[in-house]
Design a protein that fits this description.
Elements: H1 3-10, H2 23-26, H3 28-36, H4 104-112, E1 130-131, E2 137-141, H5 146-151, H6 157-169, E3 178-182, H7 196-213, E4 217-221, H8 223-230, H9 236-239, E5 244-246, E6 249-254, H10 257-262, H11 267-286
Parallel strand pairs: 2-3, 2-4, 4-6
Antiparallel strand pairs: 1-3, 5-6
Length: 287
């Protein structure tokens, strides 16, 4: 008898219960738990991680970056890059083209031989201008008409005669005191309005004439000449009676003589324009 059984017998507990060897392993409940638990899963309890201490800030493990090797050697960067601007820099406007100034005779030959637009196919001859190329008055009309195309002179026929009479009435001689030219040097077929490409083709000729003459005053005759020189769409009624400027040269607007032949009542207005021009010229000459 073992010591433990002897003690239990002395104190009155009776025989002690002892399990048979292998009893717990063969119990139905134990066998059921073993069948439900996967054999390869570790059922040992895992201790939860300790909460982080507030006084210690965990640092991420450094990551080693491998820089890509460039295929070509790049130029070194500037030590001080240019400052960034909130707005893009303004784009400079192109400077106006400076036309070479031809001698007067060479300019007249250039106009005579010009084939820069389609009007060269229908003209009889070009109309360069007439008068004193050192005159203080420059009269600019629209374009040659039928008679001008035939004779090669501006403002001939009935319209030319009317203009001559008006100039004489103001004390001006057409051959001595004024020079007369047109925006176009060739006649548009049927006296139609000139096209934009035709104006552009003739523009340099008129500009060079003005640079040679250097007039004190320009008198624009007719709506088309006035609108072309002043780059405006305003009509004669809004432009006449005022002093304008073309390339820093004073300019006055009046009616075209051909228009006055069809609208006799406006001759008085044209006369008023001439009187205004004569007074303005006198003031400009005195300055």
């Amino acid at each position: 008898m073992s010591r433990a059984v002897l003690i239990q017998s002395v104190i009155g507990l009776g025989p002690a219960w002892e399990a048979r060897p292998g009893w717990f392993e063969q119990h139905p409940a134990a066998l059921s738990r073993q069948a439900e638990a996967p054999a390869d899963v570790d059922l040992a309890p895992v201790e939860p991680p300790a909460p982080p201490r507030p006084d210690i800030v965990s640092q991420p493990e450094p990551t080693t970056l491998v820089a890509a090797q460039p295929s070509a050697k790049l130029p070194p960067l500037s030590a001080e890059p240019p400052p960034l601007s909130a707005e893009p820099p303004p784009i400079a406007s192109p400077a106006p083209e400076v036309l070479p100034l031809l001698e007067w005779d060479a300019l007249e030959r250039a106009v005579r031989d010009c084939r820069d637009c389609r009007l060269c196919q229908t003209r009889t001859q070009t109309v360069f201008g007439r008068g004193n190329r050192q005159a203080r008055w420059l009269l600019i009309g629209e374009a040659p008409g039928e008679q001008e195309d035939r004779q090669g002179q501006p403002f001939v026929g009935r319209a030319g005669q009317l203009l001559d009479n008006m100039l004489t009435a103001t004390g001006l001689d057409r051959d001595r005191d004024v020079y007369i030219a047109n925006v176009l040097k060739c006649r548009p077929p049927g006296n139609r309005n000139p096209g934009g490409d035709e104006i552009a083709a003739c523009q340099s000729y008129l500009i060079q004439q003005i640079r040679h003459i250097q007039p004190t005053l320009i008198l624009a005759l007719g709506r088309f000449a006035a609108q072309t020189l002043l780059q405006t769409e305003k009509g004669i009624g809004q432009l006449r009676g005022k002093l304008h400027s073309y390339q820093d040269i004073p300019l006055i607007v009046s009616y075209h003589p051909a228009y006055l032949l069809r609208n006799q009542p406006d001759k008085l207005k044209a006369w008023q324009d001439l009187v205004f021009a004569k007074k303005t010229f006198g003031r400009l000459s005195a300055d």
